[in-house]
Amino acid sequence: MSLINFFSKNTETIIEYSGNHFTLVLWAVGISLLIWVPTGLLLTKSDKWAARVLALANTIFCIPSLSMFAILVTIPTFGLGRKSALFALVLYAMMPLIRSVYDGVKNVDRNVIEAAKGMGMSTGRILREILVPLGIPIIFAGFRITVVMTTGIAAIATYIGERNLGRFISEGLVRSNTPMMVTGALIISVIAIGLDTLLGLIEKRIVPKGLRVTR
Q: Cα(first)–Cα(last) distance of the chain, in Å?
């Protein structure tokens, strides 16, 4: 069966799986931003706690995704399906997001901060108006990495009941069905590249050219 024939005969399934994959990524990234960006900002206040949390994040990041999913499904609260998938993806996003926020803020020139303090700016105002704006290039780079990484790892969630594009790859391997495998891999790649391209365009608008991080 050719790739074109597979697309034409399985259009509804492809749309369903693509939608499920896309929404899983959006939910995971959205939740991760709400949790890990504020955490990263808080950690800039304490290098001691930052070292501990980043060490934990690195350890979690080193756990193979299939192992992580397998562990989570054994927990009654999560089980098979989207809850476990979301929780795992949010945990994996911990390292790149916290690291980028922490490094972005910490790399701001200390002289700039001292000058702001000398002008009587409060800690909160320094954070909002100086640290975050100047750190946004590194923060945004970490955000883009998180989105692409999440899109790829989300495919593994098919092994715990998620009906997404990863299912085409897993079932294609079992059936030795090349068009099925290529379809899943191709659409996942398109989603990842599309989201990264979109974020790149947004980055050009909000980050001054001289501050952008080369990737």
A: 39
Task: Quote the CA–CA distance of 92 and 150 in Å, as a whole number.
Answer: 8
- Rounded Cα gap, residues 178 and 173, in angstroms: 8
With beta carbons less than 8 A apart as the criterion, state whether 86 and 79 touch: no
Q: Cα separation of 163 and 16, whole Å?
A: 8
Using the predicted structure, report yes or no on whether residue 149 has a pLDDT greater than 60: yes
Question: Which of 197 and 76 is assigned the larger pLDDT?
Answer: 197
- pTM higher than 0.70: yes
What's the pLDDT score for residue 111? 72
What is each CA distance from 85 to 13, 22, 27, 62, 184, in whole angstroms? Answer: 20, 13, 10, 17, 18
Pick the CATH number of 3-211 from 3.60.15.10, 1.10.3720.10, 2.60.120.260, 3.40.50.720: 1.10.3720.10
Nearest of 164, 165, 204 to residue 184 by alpha carbon = 165
Write down the domain spans for the chain.
3-211
* Residue 32: closest CA among 94, 111, 74, 88: 94
Distance, in Å, from the CA atom of 46 to the CA atom of 50, rounded to the nearest integer, reads 6
